[in-house]
Write a structure and sequence with these properties.
alpha/beta; two-stranded antiparallel ribbon
Length: 129
Amino acid sequence: MPSDSSIEGRLAELFTSLGYSFTKGGALEGASGYRHHFDFLVQKGNQTVCLDFASEARSLIASLAKSIDVRGVNIVIAVTKHEALMELLLATRRAELSVSQPKIGEPIIIMYESADELLSKLKFLLSQL
């Protein structure tokens, strides 16, 4: 999660303005039976979006692993534009995925440099779901 504490309030405002309820630090059980924790669980009706932040390779890999085990939800991984992470994504052939037609079960990776960029991309994504 970004260290800027104001981003949390801006995310909450975005989620509620689009009619979503949200839980900070929520968890869902995966097919393996393991409970996976996410930075945010965002829900609207029967739709669930899990949002994780990755600022280093370890957290990115952990979030990708969660996306394999947790099914029936959209998993969004917000990745800071950092050279090492970009190289890892390219190595795994997971450059920023198109959010024009998100598919349940496939992680959606959003790369961002600023809070404004992140909020803009999340707003667009949530409007597409």
